[in-house]
Specification:
Elements lengths: L7 H8 L1 H12 L1 H7 L17 H8 L1 E8 L4 H16 L7 E7 L5 H9 L14 H9 L2 E5 L5 H15 L3 E8 L6 H12 L6 E6 L6 H12 L7 E4 L6 H11 L13 E9 L8 H4 L3 H19 L8 H14 L8 E7 L1 E2 L5 E2 L17 E6 L11 E6 L6 E8 L23 E7 L3 E9 L7 E9 H4 L7 H11 L8 H18 L9 E4 L6 H9 L6
Parallel strand pairs: 1-2, 1-4, 2-3, 4-5, 5-6, 7-12, 8-17
Antiparallel strand pairs: 7-13, 8-11, 9-10, 11-12, 13-14, 14-15, 15-16
Helix pairs in contact: 2-3, 5-16, 8-9, 10-17, 13-14, 13-17, 14-17
Length: 552
């Protein structure tokens, strides 16, 4: 057998799950315990939102979830996926009956696999002070199993399927496969999972990590390969940025606050900036990064998705298809990106006082010598529709900059005939008096609005002040990791925060001509060099000034 066999103790738990899981359910959630006894769920249980009653509880008793992480020995699995699953378990969001499987080429036993997972887990959630973290960790790890196999081998996936079937028993089995593997093997893995491991009684879903191709043709080829064995409903293209708290709150801010609805248009907004900044370089990952560059890695997915959510019209409902329909409409309305409205850069080394040196991108041993791969890009996009006609959207992303943050900045137009110009801070510069809405995605999540305000005292002098919502001080709760939210959505079948195939096509139709122009073998665009831990290339500031955008 390629897959590790389970210990007798674990096998015993698998054969008698009701006893163990009911006891755990009673400790973790009295409401869920009541549901298993035939009573209605109380308001405190997460399942109450779905109106879980006796019939639903019986259905829960008769179903099980098998979640397989393909590429279980990789960094993403260890740093993000397994901790997210554990956090969901700690909060009672995983089904009563579930098992987690790791699949990779590395050979190891169940015990070795559990040791690897255990080193990544932390009990950051104080779910119940009376219930020890150690017991929950042990229970979680007892549901984790490992199968070694080849990604392109149907026989290996047959072995995995047999392992899952043994644990699932007679229950209705739902299966999820998380492809934490390089894009080059997405198709064989997805096809093997679908053909050899699909559930015969429940659903089968596959989570695909970005990048979804390098351009339009490779993206379509990937999509065609996936669609040979899976339907669109079964495919969940994950962009972890859409799972961040402030991004999910973006549509709430827009569509549930009357104050913003009339302002969200060309009549009042002068420009929109969507910014992603990291204060570190590739740090030994240059070989991977060099295959994609900052535009493919950050802008074509993360930032473009944020732009679509920001600029879309109000959907008919919160149904996933209604939301994604509106996003696609916005993407199709974006004007072709002009090369004159794009600046690319690459960070160079820098000497600091005391003899310390910050390395250049080309100093990374994994980067090909003389690479022209951009580590920074700034571009201006225009949406040719009635709401946004003429409003520049500046997207900017870079590595080795002076700070680490991601944010959306909305700069409003000047007040016509402003009678307080002379009293305003920065008199003579009308832009100093403009209102600005800032949505800080990370770190220190916040939403704040810059307004003009009278400085206290007998004189009449104005200054800009902040109406400031800091999440840490306003909400006494730890924000969930994006992967927790997105994995839970897959379990629940909610596709609002996942990318549809036509949405992906439209994004690549927009960016592929630009990438071809930048990477033209006969005349490639050389990136402008900028110092490590600086504000980026000088050309980016000229680009902002060209479109009357005040840089931050």
């Amino acid at each position: 057998r390629l897959c590790s066999s389970r210990s007798a103790a674990v096998r015993g738990r698998a054969l008698q799950p009701g006893k163990l899981t009911r006891a755990r359910a009673a400790r973790a959630s009295p409401a869920r315990s009541a549901a298993l006894s035939g009573e209605l769920v109380g308001k405190g249980d997460p399942a109450n939102a779905a109106g879980l009653g006796f019939a639903d509880a019986m259905e829960t008793e008769m179903t099980t979830l098998s979640l397989t992480v393909v590429g279980a020995s990789g960094d993403l699995a260890k740093k993000k996926i397994f901790p997210a699953l554990f956090a969901l378990y700690m909060q009672g969001f995983l089904p009563q009956h579930f098992s987690i499987y790791g699949f990779a080429r590395s050979k190891m036993t169940n015990e070795e696999f559990r040791d690897i997972i255990a080193r990544t887990l932390t009990c950051r959630i104080d779910f119940d002070a009376l219930d020890g973290c150690g017991d929950k960790t042990e229970n979680f790890l007892s549901r984790c199993f490992y199968c070694s196999g080849q990604y392109d081998s149907p026989e290996s996936f047959d072995e995995l399927s047999a392992m899952m079937t043994e644990t699932e028993g007679p229950r209705l089995a739902n299966r999820i496969f998380y492809l934490s593997v390089p894009p080059s093997i997405f198709v064989p893995v997805a096809q093997n999972a679908a053909k050899q491991c699909s559930s015969s009684t429940g659903y089968t879903r596959v989570i695909v990590e970005k990048p979804f191709g390098r351009d339009l043709s490779s993206s379509r080829a990937l999509g065609e390969g996936l669609s040979e064995a899976l339907t669109e409903e079964q495919i969940y293209r994950i962009d972890h940025y859409l799972g961040k708290e402030l991004i999910e709150n973006l549509t709430v801010l827009r569509f549930s606050n009357l104050i913003f609805q009339p302002l969200w248009s060309r009549q009042y907004i002068q420009n929109v900036q969507i910014i992603f900044s990291e204060n570190f370089g590739t740090e030994g990952r240059g070989g991977y990064f060099d295959n994609y560059g900052i535009i493919r890695d950050i802008m074509q997915n993360h930032l473009l998705q944020i732009l679509a959510l920001f600029a879309m019209e109000q959907p008919v409902s919160l149904n996933a298809e209604d939301i994604r329909d509106e996003k696609v409409k916005v993407l199709r309305a974006i004007r072709d990106i002009a090369l004159d409205d794009v600046v690319v850069g690459q960070y160079k080394g820098r000497s600091l006082p005391g003899g310390k040196t910050l390395p250049a991108y080309l100093d990374d041993e994994t980067v090909p010598p003389g690479s022209l791969c951009p580590t920074f890009a700034s571009m201006v996009l225009f949406i040719d529709n009635a709401r946004w006609d003429g409003v520049p959207f500046l997207m900017k992303a870079g590595k080795a900059l002076d700070s680490r943050h991601a944010e959306i900045r909305v700069q409003f137009r000047n007040v016509p005939g402003n009678i307080y110009n002379a009293q305003q801070h920065g008199a003579g510069n009308p832009d100093a008096a403009t209102n600005e809405l800032v949505i800080r995605v990370q770190p220190d999540e916040a939403i704040y609005l810059k307004i003009n305000n009278k400085v206290p005292g007998l004189g009449l002098r104005l200054d800009r002040s902040k109406l400031d919502l800091q999440y840490k001080s306003e909400y006494d709760v730890e924000l969930p990791d994006a992967y927790e939210r997105l994995i839970l959505d897959v379990i629940n079948g909610d596709k609002r925060l996942f990318i549809r195939s036509d949405e992906l096509d439209t994004a690549w139709e927009l960016f592929t001509p630009l990438l071809q122009a930048l990477e033209d073998p006969k005349n490639p665009v050389a990136p402008e060099l900028y110092p490590y831990q600086s504000r980026g290339p000088i050309g980016a500031h000229y680009l902002a000034a060209k479109h009357n955008i005040r840089p931050v």
